[in-house]
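Appendix B. One record, verbatim.
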Amino acid sequence: MDKKTKSNLNNTFSNWFNFKKNFKRNPTNDPHYVIPFMKAHRSGSTVGGFWLNATATWIDVKKNPT
C-alpha cells in the first residue's frame, strides 16, 4: 500500500470516529437523518428489520438471478 492510500485511509477512519466535529451537517451524509429500518414486501410475505446501532453499519444488497 502506498503512502497516499495509507494517508487517505487514516483520514477516513479519523473522520468517521470524530464525525461530530469533522463532518458538515448534510442530509445525504449525516447518519442521524435516517431510521435504521428496512421492509420488504411481496404477495403473501412481509419482512422487516430494525438495526439499533446502524450508524456504523453498511449493508450490501444484491439479487441473484433466479
